[in-house]
Structures are given as C-alpha cells and as structure tokens.
Amino acid sequence: MSIENLRLAVLIDGDNAPRDCLKGIMEEIAIYGTPMIKRIYGDWASHGLSSWKTTLLENAVTPKQQFAYTTGKNATDSAMIIDAMDILYTGKADGFVLVSSDSDFTPLAIRLRESGMYVIGIGEEKTPKAFVQACDKFIRVEVIRDKYKKTAKPAAKKTAAAKKTAGAAKSADKPEKSPAKSAAKKPSLTAEVKPPVPEDIINLIADSVADLADDDGWIDMSNLGNLIIKKQPDFDPRTYGFGKLSNMLKNLPRFEVQVRETADPNVRPMYVRDVEA
Question: Phi, psi (5° rounding) for residue 246?
Fold first, then answer.
C-alpha cells in the first residue's frame, strides 16, 4: 500500500497542540492518506480548552473527555496512549498521526513503528528531538501555519478590495439611464454565466500540485483530484460552472494541462502543472 493511500488514525493532544491552524494540519495529513479516525484528548470541563469547540466542529474531530484526576499529572497522555494501542490491535489503521509537542509520546511512536505502523508526528519547533526522531516523518506546525496563511491571504485581500470597490461605486454619482440602455446592458437569460473561481480555490489547487508534482512539476490529474477532495471534501468544479476538474483547469491561466499518449489509444492520461511555480 502506498503512503498516499494509508488509513490514518489522527490523535491530537489537546493540551499541547495549536488550535489556530487545525484546518491546515488536516489538509497536510490528507497528503499522506485518509484520516479514518480523528480524536482529540483533554479535560473539556476546563475553561482553557473551550476555544477548541468551533474548529473541532468545522473539521469533524471527536473530543475525548479525560478528567485531570491529580494536579500536576497529565492524564490526557495516558488516555491517548491507551486509545492508540486499542486502535493498533483492531487493525483499523495503517498509520498514526500524533499531534503534540510533548516528548512523552516518544515511547508510543517507537512502539507503533515496531508494529509496522507508519507514524507521522506534528508539533511545534520546540518539540524535543527524541520525539521527532521516533517518527517516520515529522512536520513542523510553523511550516503548516505559514503555508495555510499564504493560501488564505490572497482571498482576504481580494475580499477587502471588492468591498472597497463596492463602497466607492455606491458613493459615486450615477447618471440617469434610459430604459433602452438598461435593457441593452442586461445579460441574456439564456447566456451561460460562470461564477469566478475564488483565489483561495486556485491556491488550494496550486498547493496540491506542488505537494505531489514530479521533478518537472507535473502531476497526474486523477491524483490531483483525489488530493483536493481529501483536503476539502466539499470541492466540486460544478460549483464554478465546470463539469470536470480538467475543464476547470484548462480555463485557469495559472495551470497547463497536457494529454499524453500511451500504447493503448483509448488511454490518454492528463497531467497538470503550475506555470507560476
């Protein structure tokens, strides 16, 4: 089984995980497989964890309650480790994603790898080297946060610019139009009007191309489509007036689509690259 097709169990330490970029973390995880189990552990009766609520709902992550029985002892770690071993023995996962900056999970990562599991760690720069080395792959939260901000920033700028333009248009004096001119400018009801593809969607596609592109920058169209859906389940090119992802990309100047010939004339795979990369 390839890494991209792994069934992943995502276990998050609510006491030692960043809550400002959970969506970015889940998108990053989608590169490596499908998160079949998504759980976060903590004492949800504690006021300090209350800010997690909205982001957990948006990303379909299940909170697991663990009371702090003794002051100064982290019961969350124990609950997360026990759950990980239960999942391991059920055989429902091919790999684990441990989201924490706590070195206490080092033995767990080692044990899971000994059992043939592919282990991905996600934590902040401060994460002890022992935990980093215990994982097959470790991803810095700072890298994910920067990547997510770059994706979100253009959309925010576009929205602000649109509001500014709309405000200026409202304040401007408008000359009185005749009924004939108004009717001439009114679009035909039969004309096909495609809504513009938002900048954040274009950036999502560009990031996905970069994630799996070969040395020349090309990625198979089917692999690209699968990755985009993993990152954003509600993505649908029909939302923007295109029946297929390939048609959508052909109409976006940022991307180049190439149809390749094979020994079988009926098989003509399509590849995509980002011309701005």
Answer: -60, -45
In the predicted structure, residue 170 carries a pLDDT above the cut 60: no
Residue (of 231, 233, 225, 174) closest to 27 by Cα position: 231
Best CA proximity match to 228, nearest among 219, 217, 218, 241: 219
Other Cβ atoms within 10 Å of 205 Cβ, number: 24
Q: Domain ranges in the chain?
A: 3-145, 194-277
Architecture of domain 194-277 in CATH?
2-Layer Sandwich (3.30)
Q: What is the arithmetic mean of pLDDT over 65-86?
A: 77
In this prediction, residues 4-21 reach a mean pLDDT of: 88
* Angle made by CA atoms 265, 266, 268, in degrees to the nearest 5: 80
Equal CATH topology for 3-145 and 194-277: no
Residues 6+ apart with CB under 8 A from 26: 10, 35, 38, 59, 231
Residues 6 or more apart whose CB falls under 8 angstroms from that of 152 comprise 200
Give strand pairing partners of 256.
Answer: 273
Residue type, 254: R
pLDDT tens digit sequence for 186-245: 444 444 556 689 999 999 999 999 999 999 999 999 999 999 999 998 999 989 989 999
CATH architecture of 3-145: 3-Layer(aba) Sandwich (3.40)
Cα–Cα distance list, 125 to 70, 131, 141, 143, 243 (Å): 29, 12, 7, 9, 43
